[in-house]
Amino acid sequence: MLDFIKGWSRRAALPPGSLVHVGRRRVQTPSATVTYYNGQGRRVVENAGPGDVAPVADEVCWLRVRGLHDLELIRGLGQRLNLHPMLLEDVVEATQRPKVEEFADYLFVVLRLLRFDQQTAVISEEQLSLVLGRGWVATFEESDDTPLDLVAQRIAQRRGRIAEMGADYLAYAIIDVMIDSNFGVLEAFGESLDAIEDQVLANPSEASAKALYHFKGQIIHLRRVLWPLREVVNFIARGDSGFFSQPVWPFLRDVADHALHVLDAADAIREQATGLMELHLGALGNRTNEVMKVLTIMASIFIPLTFIAGVYGMNFEYMPELRLHYGYPAVLAAMAAVAAGLIIYFRHKKWL
Hints:
One of its GO terms (cellular component) is plasma membrane. By secondary structure, the chain is α+β, with helices and mostly antiparallel strands.
């Protein structure tokens, strides 16, 4: 069954806005962390609850929730931030496609985090939900090992502009690191595909055909996840949303450029896989043609020999050649001469 439809039956017949976790439990115990920071410093609240989320005017508030199956925690945090029930439903349904939705008081963005296992050549994905409000950002992550840790390190070490900028820049930084993480996945995927290409060129076999069909399915998965990114980044980069200030617009256009590079790379991988399929089929066809050529040449050599043997194998009484003293070696010599002549002719034609 396709992963992105698993679990949908659990929410059948439920009213809109019902919280039902759909997806894998990637952490044992969900947790929430709240980070407050500005140009002067930062403070972090671990194992936070709804009461610890209190955005203020002079600090950026970043709420990180890791693990989506604690529905009461997510419901409480959503109520604290006045998040719409339909938004929370999309947060815990971890099978959403990348999208962006604008509400009156916040902007909702869904992104997918890709991972590639080179041992099994399988692409897996996780959902990241981001909500940008006035002075605060909330992120909901399926696991506790995501590229957002890099953003948290930049805040802690006060590297770059992030400590001096507002919540909209934090949202940009999160979107940027999520999109850039795809380059590593595509690079590893391309290296595995190059290994299959070397195998196809050296010795096309049933194993390489199975590997190619497997990669073809993974590319379909990859394209399904990445293609909606175009709509997300185009909406954000146009500056139509009032949640991003003008100083952040150039950075958003850079994110859109990165997303286009990701999509171009995915298309290049898809074309490479298609070309490998055609190359594999062509190589198998050439191998079959070589076998048929050898068999045809052998048959062409033995057809006249079979004809000669058939003529002198007929049991007629009056066949003068049968009584010649040197008839048998003469026939053998003639057959050898015919075979040699055919071989010389085939070599002259470069068929051998």
